[in-house]
Amino acid sequence: MTSLAPRERHEAVGLDVELMLAEYQALKAEQLARIGTRDNLLYATLAAYAAVVAGAIGAGGPLQILLALPAVAAVLGWTYLSNDKKIVQIRAYLRRDLGGRLGQHLPDGSLAFGWESVRRSGVDRWLGKVGHVAVDLIAFSGASLAALAAYWILAPLDGLTALAAAETALILAFTAEVIRWSMAGRARDRRRSE
Fold this sequence. Notes:
Elements: H1 6-58, H2 68-103, H3 114-118, H4 123-154, H5 161-193
Helix pairs in contact: 1-2, 2-4, 2-5, 4-5
């Protein structure tokens, strides 16, 4: 294998750094798009809830219409959670993998993408994570479980009872996944700080 001359080695390093920076920009653009989608899913969920509740209460509609709320929550909630996971995975990749490789090319052991790490430490980070999980649980699980509880208490047993049971199981599974994902994130944060 032939070794590169100093100039060729410098050009190869420059190209490597350019490629890493291009990858960073592409991933940040994807991350920002996913954040926008995730946030809009929350707004769409709230709008759908308002429509369901208005149909059930405002027009004196049948209580069975409340079963639409958990269905909406399940579809939008899982999509929301999937986007949230990708956002976190992109952030972790940028900070640990890409940042580490790029940092090897920086003088004096400088940290590449320092902001990706600095802003994720301290009490504010913990409070933000707790708030984020609370919003997820209230918006997707709490409202759905309230609608299901109202259905179970007020509606007569009928052909939709099996649907209500399936929706209850689905929302409980979603709730467990939100909590599992949150706990996994805290465990990752603890391991990184050690």
